[in-house]
Design a protein that fits this description.
single chain; 114 residues; mainly beta; 7-stranded mixed β-sheet; 4-stranded antiparallel β-sheet; 0% helix
Length: 114
């Protein structure tokens, strides 16, 4: 069982930055994959970035702007988002694959608007 709690969302102007953080209830050292997904209004939830012990994966729209990282000592996974665009608006969910189960956080709202 893994509980995930996201934080760091908010309202930001286009071109601005936000740093999202996902705190896990157990050591993430044993979690194979953690990631961030975004659900924009009226659209399905989509992968933004994921990280494993061997590497990272990014959506095309996130490459060069977003950076995912994990801190095993603090049991957190972070998403640094730079050069934000209005189309980045949505609810951002943290995700963890642990064993044969998938866990989700409650989400944090990111709004990019002037």
């Amino acid at each position: 069982q893994v509980q995930l709690v996201e934080s760091g969302g908010g309202l930001v102007q286009p071109g601005g930055s936000l740093r999202l953080s996902c705190a896990a209830s157990r050591s993430i050292f044993s979690i194979s994959t953690m990631g961030w997904y975004c659900q924009a209004p009226g659209k399905p939830r989509e992968l933004v970035a994921a990280i494993t012990s061997t590497g990272t994966t990014y959506a095309i729209s996130a490459k060069g702007r977003f950076t995912i990282s994990r801190d095993n000592a603090k049991n957190t996974v972070n998403l640094q988002m730079n050069s934000l665009k209005p189309e980045d608006t949505g609810v951002y969910y943290c995700n963890a694959v642990y064993g044969r189960n998938i866990y989700w956080g409650q989400g944090t709202q990111v709004t990019v608007s002037s």
